[in-house]
């Protein structure tokens, strides 16, 4: 990792020195055209910087330690505290240098930090920071969604390797991923959550077959993945054999924290206020009330998430309290997107130009070519209460692990996985 692009910031740097150094780093390393466009606003920056250009430049940001500044230096960070990291984020926000590879930075990294060996962390964490190895998550299966512990994908030991077969579903960005975190059953004689092992799977190998699932927005970020004797070296096993359910806990709580959002309290409400002005609704009492309610709820989310991220800053897993932010954000974003779509009036209910997508071997799927961004956001938000654990499951977690309520009855609790009936 080159020191030429790393800012001169340490744990003892003052906030003023950090801000000055980040300004210097930006001037020296961020393309001048992006800096000039960012001063004019987000729309000008989107015009000046393509997605491909950003991805090509992004490793510079990663090697500088600015993608995950709280991580240790050896693993791609700067070893800084949360307050110093917040100063950095404030200085970079106007440039919209958003983190890529979120499933790697959140879901994979949390498990590696909690359960990985030093060799595993040094091997896998730095390429996550630079986005040079992208990650997906192979957990859910057709018969194991909300009841994830009932998963049936099998991993069998073969010397210093494992062979894995089974089917996974709802895998986000599988088609772009280089690696996957994966849960597979290694002992069917044990109870369902005791015979699972956690693996790191190379997606670019024989035996891994990916099929996109087209959504009503026309996109296909979700996928099915079929595994047919895919091979994993034992070095890519994370945690103990049959101890994968405990490792998965770190991933799942981080996933809930990730999809709960940051909760700045200003961004979404400001965008809605701009939309209200653009569409002549700034004086509408109902619009003003809706925007104010969303502003207030985002503030609440920010304070709630701060309690969870304090665990992350201390090197701990977010824990079951992450479910609070996940449940709240899922429903808040659906209200936000509905309000946004309502701003554009009739354009939210009718548009021009259907096209057909899908593989040649399957019936074509129609979606709108010119679907307004507000409507696309509304349609996509329907997944918020399902992805990352359904709201119902997360409410159970809150009830049982946070509030201390009795567990739901399970007549098969403690029984061998192979003896539990499955549909």
Question: What does this entry look like structurally?
Answer:
This protein has 423 residues and is α+β, with helices and mostly antiparallel strands. It folds into three domains: 1-100, Orthogonal Bundle (Butyryl-Coa Dehydrogenase, subunit A, domain 1); 135-243, Butyryl-CoA Dehydrogenase, subunit A, domain 2, CATH 2.40.110.10; 248-402, Up-down Bundle (Butyryl-CoA Dehydrogenase, subunit A, domain 3), CATH 1.20.140.10. The protein is 43% helix and 14% strand. It contains 13 helices and ten strands. The chain has helices at 15-29, 32-40, 42-48, 51-63, 82-92, 102-115, 118-129, 244-259, 267-278, 285-313, 322-343, 373-380, 391-402; strands at 135-138, 154-158, 161-168, 179-185, 196-202, 208-213, 222-233, 237-238, 354-357, 365-368. The strands form three sheets. It has a four-stranded mixed beta sheet. The chain has a four-stranded antiparallel beta sheet with strand order 2-3-7-6, with no helix packed on it. Strands 9-10 form a two-stranded antiparallel sheet. Helix 6 (102-115) packs antiparallel against helix 8 (244-259), helix 9 runs antiparallel to helix 10 and helix 11 (322-343) packs antiparallel against helix 12. The longest helix is centred in the last third of the chain and has 29 residues, at 285-313. The radius of gyration is 23 Å and the shape is globular. Residues 259-266 have low confidence and may be disordered.
């Amino acid at each position: 990792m080159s020191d030429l692009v790393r800012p001169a910031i340490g744990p003892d740097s003052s906030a003023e020195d950090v801000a000055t150094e980040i300004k210097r780093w930006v001037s020296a390393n961020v393309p001048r055209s992006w800096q000039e466009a960012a001063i004019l606003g987000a729309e000008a920056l989107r015009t000046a910087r393509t997605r491909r250009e950003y991805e090509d430049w992004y490793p510079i940001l990663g090697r500088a330690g600015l993608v995950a500044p709280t991580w240790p230096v050896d693993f791609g960070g700067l070893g800084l505290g949360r307050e110093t990291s917040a100063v950095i984020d404030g200085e970079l926000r106007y440039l919209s240098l958003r983190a890529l590879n979120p499933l790697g930075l959140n879901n994979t990294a949390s498990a590696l930090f909690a359960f990985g060996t030093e060799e595993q962390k040094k091997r896998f964490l730095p390429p996550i920071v630079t986005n040079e190895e992208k990650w997906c998550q192979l957990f859910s299966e057709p018969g194991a969604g909300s009841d994830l512990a009932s998963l049936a994908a099998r991993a069998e030991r073969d010397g210093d390797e494992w062979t894995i077969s089974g089917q996974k579903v709802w895998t986000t960005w599988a088609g772009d991923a280089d690696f996957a975190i994966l849960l597979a059953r290694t002992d069917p004689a044990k109870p369902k959550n005791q015979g699972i092992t956690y693996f790191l799977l190379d997606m670019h190998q024989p035996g891994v077959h990916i099929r996109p699932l087209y959504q009503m927005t026309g996109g296909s970020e979700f996928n099915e993945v079929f595994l047919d004797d895919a091979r994993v070296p034992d070095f890519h096993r994370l945690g103990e054999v049959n101890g994968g359910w405990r490792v998965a806990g770190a991933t799942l709580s981080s996933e809930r924290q990730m999809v709960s959002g940051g909760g700045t309290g200003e961004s979404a409400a400001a965008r809605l206020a701009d939309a209200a002005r653009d569409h002549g609704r700034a004086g509408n009492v109902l619009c003003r009330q809706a925007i104010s309610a969303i502003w207030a709820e985002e503030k609440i989310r920010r304070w709630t998430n701060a309690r969870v991220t304090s665990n992350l800053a201390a090197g701990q897993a977010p824990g079951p309290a992450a479910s609070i932010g996940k449940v709240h954000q899922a429903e808040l974003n659906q209200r936000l997107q509905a309000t946004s779509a309502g701003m554009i009036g009739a354009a939210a209910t009718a548009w021009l130009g259907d096209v057909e997508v899908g593989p040649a071997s399957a019936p074509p799927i129609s979606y709108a070519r010119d679907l307004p961004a507000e409507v696309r956001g509304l349609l996509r938000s329907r997944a918020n209460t399902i992805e990352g654990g359904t709201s119902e499951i997360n409410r159970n977690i809150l009830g049982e692990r946070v509030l201390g309520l009795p567990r739901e009855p399970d007549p098969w609790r403690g029984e061998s996985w192979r003896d539990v009936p499955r549909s």
